[in-house]
Amino acid sequence: MDLDSARHLLHPKLTVLATCVDGEGNPNIITLAWAMPTSIDPSLVAISVGETRYSHDLIHSVGEFVVNIPSSDLLDEVKLCGSRTGLTADKFEETDLTPVDSEEVAVPLIEECPAHIECELVDEFRTGDHTIFVGEIVHGSVEEGIFDESSGTFDMDKFEPVCHVGGSEFVTSGRKI
Ligand SMILES: Cc1cc2nc3c(=O)[nH]c(=O)nc-3n(C[C@H](O)[C@H](O)[C@H](O)COP(=O)(O)O)c2cc1C
Question: Can you tell me which atom of ligand 1 is nearest the CA of 58?
Fold first, then answer.
């Protein structure tokens, strides 16, 4: 097997829209398939961001980001935020997504996404041509009725995630197993 395609065997992956800001508070959105929880106590999440991405330097220098979890109705926005760069485009304007003040960080969250994880950057690791940014969760929010906090699970009859298979292929939730 071609070694270059082997990492794609880890897909499909839940795909998120991470928000970040520049030094003047102008917000940007980046689509990420490489995002995961990485510690229970403290509660940490990690995102892997390519060094060439505009968002890379924003997250590194400002030290905060929000992981917004879109549902399948936002697929077009996921694609746009994953193909345009915030260096030359205002992705909030282009997508018509709405930036809303977060509770604990200066980075806005995306109103149309049903769930949000606000993070403060606590560590970062260079991994080849990407950087893993580790964020401590300082606030979380989720649309009422779609997530059971006692079991920590989405109601999959009520939430359709965007999962990236590879290339331009995506899937959403299927049957329960
Ligand atoms: C489905 C999908 C998943 C992606 N996942 C990642 C990822 O995990 N890490 C990354 O650095 N770029 C990823 N990208 C590419 C970036 O989203 C893309 O390069 C984006 O235009 C960068 O925006 P920026 O320059 O405004 O930061 C993904 C793109 C798509 C469409």
Answer: 27
Each residue's pLDDT tens digit, 48-68: 999 999 999 999 999 999 999
Closest ligand 1 atom to the C-alpha of 20? 27
Helix, strand, coil percentages in the chain from 3-state DSSP, rounded to 5: 20, 40, 40
* Residue 35 included in any domain: yes
What pLDDT, in 10s, does the model give residues 130-151? 999 999 999 999 999 999 999 9
Task: Report whether 173 contacts 153 (CB < 8 A).
Answer: no
CATH number, residue 107? 2.30.110.10
Whether residue 91 lies inside any domain: the answer is yes
